[in-house]
Amino acid sequence: MNFLGLDIGTGGSRAVLIDEIGTVLASATVAHADFTSPHIGWAEQDPDDWWRACVSAIRTVLQNTEASDIGAISFSGQMHGSVFLDGSDRVLRPALLWCDQRTEKQCEEITDKIGRQHLIELVCNPAVTGFTLPKLLWVRENEPEIWNQVKSILLPKDYIRLRLSGDKASDVADSSGTLLFDVQNRKWSDEMLRAFNIDAALLPKVSESIEVTGSVSQLAADETGLKAGTPIVAGAGDNAAGAIGMGVTRPGTVSATIGTSGVVFGVTERPSLDLKGRIHTLCHAIPGRWHNTGVTLAAGLSLKWFRDNFGGGKSFDELGNEAEKVPSGSEGAIWLPYLMGERTPHLDPNARAAFVGLTASHTAAHLTRAAMEGVAFSLRDSFEIFKEAGAEISSIRLGGGGAKSKIWRQIQADVYGQPVEILEADEGAAFGAAILAGVGVGAWGSVDEACEKTIRVAEIVEPNQESVQRLDRNYAAYEQLYSALRPAMKIISEDQG
Question: How would CATH label the architecture of 2-240?
Answer without folding.
Answer: 2-Layer Sandwich (3.30)
